[in-house]
Amino acid sequence: MKEYDYVIIGGGCAGLSLAYELDTHNKLDDKTLAIIEPRDNYKRDKTWSFWKVDQHNFDDCIKNRWNEFSIKTNSESKTIRCDQFPYESIDSGLFYDKINTRLKKNKNIKFFKNIKDLDIRNSFIFNSLPSLKGKSDSNFWQHFHGVEIETKETCFNERAVNLMDFNCEQRGSVHFFYILPFSKNKAMVETTWLSKKDDSLKDYDYQIKIYLNNLGIKDYKINYREEGAIPLFYPINKKENNKINIGTAGGMTRLSTGYTFLNIQEHSKYIRKNIENIKKTKVYNIGQKYRFLDEIFLRVLKKYPEKMPNIFSKIFNSSYSTAIKFLSNKSNIFEDMSIILKMPKWIFIKSIFN
Ligand SMILES: Cc1cc2nc3c(=O)[nH]c(=O)nc-3n(C[C@H](O)[C@H](O)[C@H](O)COP(=O)(O)OP(=O)(O)OC[C@H]3O[C@@H](n4cnc5c(N)ncnc54)[C@H](O)[C@@H]3O)c2cc1C
After folding, report:
1. What is the set of domains in the chain, with CATH numbers?
2. For residues 146 and 28, is the Cβ–Cβ distance under 8 A?
3. Each residue's pLDDT tens digit in the chain (354 positions)?
4. Could you tell me if the CB of 15 is within 6 A of ligand 1?
5. Cβ partners under 8 Å of residue 324, min gap 6
6. Atom of ligand 1 nearest to the CA of 246
7. What is the DSSP string of 92-118?
8. Nearest CA to ligand 1 atom 37
9. I need a surface site. Which of 53, 103, 203, 282 has the fewest CB within 10 A?
């Protein structure tokens, strides 16, 4: 069995981003890489969106970019301009094509379906398969189902993303709709829950139908669907000498928001910069400060779900750049304080000591 210098387990967002970063910086000219990925072919399966607080390698995979977003609760509606940090959506189909086309040209990179086909005893492993054993049922998830719809009439304001619209059934949980308007008559409409695993909340089609109906949108066709569940807890991360976890498995998700894509890109750059000395390199994380703040935020969310629409909305009572930097782990201490002081103090203080 052939041996490889590096093995990436999982050729998804994190695995492919890392392979691309290494390849484009010539780190695989004299090293070999095996990517373990079970899927037979790649097709669009996700739409990765984020505020562009950093450069990334995938400007040519952007499906849309917006300079405005809105947040709606049953008592207020805010539309916020974000010219400095536009909101971008990446089409995963274009992302997979771009990376796979590039990787195929390097004879030092090979794809395998099964890790058993390799001898990995002397390889350095980058693993993107999260180990969630025992944590899966008791913890919270961001779970969602989105449909890309096309209408005959013009229905959408194509200038503004609807980041969170809480005008929908809450069922004792936290529930909102998210709309990415691609044009006046095409949009991704997503029903999103922050909750424990609960099958009774998975009547997604019904929820979307009612929501669209309430917006007066009855006549539409569905062109594409995506569904997912992002763990709002950190996977079990056993430290091993010859292995680094990446992507969701590597704790790259911000627990308060589910945003992961740009953190994956930062992590890939970090690994590429340190690849020659990877065994001795400090483990990368998105920042202890954010881990601590997000843990408290989640405690509040679990205990007071009914307060969350107001809390999410209050984050944006700070300047838009402060709020975006905070949510994208780029804020300084003054910006953190500006957000923290906007929060309902008593329930957050109680949750720290809970
Ligand atoms: C539908 C969806 C939408 C999302 N939207 C956003 C967003 O808008 N913004 C954002 O920041 N984040 C978003 N996320 C969160 C996060 O960015 C994604 O989950 C991202 O794909 C995580 O990358 P990953 O490499 O960790 O996991 P994945 O991309 O899921 O990659 C894991 C790979 O492992 C492969 N695999 C499975 N089993 C095995 C096995 N036994 N051996 C080897 N390989 C295996 C899978 O086929 C897959 O290719 C979204 C998540 C989902 C599910």
Report:
1. 6-65+92-133+235-280 (3.50.50.60), 141-231 (3.30.70), 288-353 (no CATH)
2. no
3. 889 999 999 999 999 999 999 999 999 999 999 999 999 999 999 999 999 999 999 999 999 999 999 999 999 999 999 999 999 999 999 999 999 999 999 999 999 999 999 999 999 999 999 887 767 777 999 999 999 999 999 999 999 999 999 999 999 999 999 999 999 999 999 999 999 989 999 999 999 999 999 999 999 999 999 999 999 998 877 778 899 999 999 999 999 999 999 999 999 999 999 999 999 999 999 999 999 999 999 999 999 999 999 999 999 998 999 999 999 999 999 999 999 999 998 898 888 887
4. yes
5. 51, 53, 82, 85
6. 26
7. HHHHHHHHHHHHHT-TTEEEES-GGGS
8. 10
9. 282
Q: Which of 109, 98, 119 is nearest to 30 (CA)?
A: 109
127 C-alpha to center of ligand 1: Å? 12
What is the pTM (predicted TM-score) of this model?
0.96
Q: How far apart are the first and last CA of the chain?
A: 53
CA of 200 to the centre of ligand 1 (A): 24
Burial class (CB within 10 angstroms; exposed 0-12, middle 13-18, buried 19+) of 316: buried
Cβ atoms of residues 126 and 246 within 8 Å: yes
Ligand 1 centroid–CA 57 distance in Å is 18
Length of the chain measured in residues? 354
User: Which two tokens mark 50?
Assistant: 């984020």
Ligand 1 lined by 134 (C-beta under 6 Å)? no
Structure tokens belonging to residue 299: 């405690």
Q: Is there an atom of ligand 1 within 6 Å of 327 CB?
A: no
Residue 80, phi-psi category: left (phi > 0), alpha (psi -120 to 50), beta (remainder):
beta
Q: How far apart are CA 172 and CA 149, in angstroms?
A: 28
Amino acid of residue 164: M
123 lines ligand 1 (CB under 6 A): no
3-state secondary structure of 82: coil
* Ligand 1 pocket residue status of 53, Cβ below 6 Å: no
177 lines ligand 1 (CB under 6 A): no
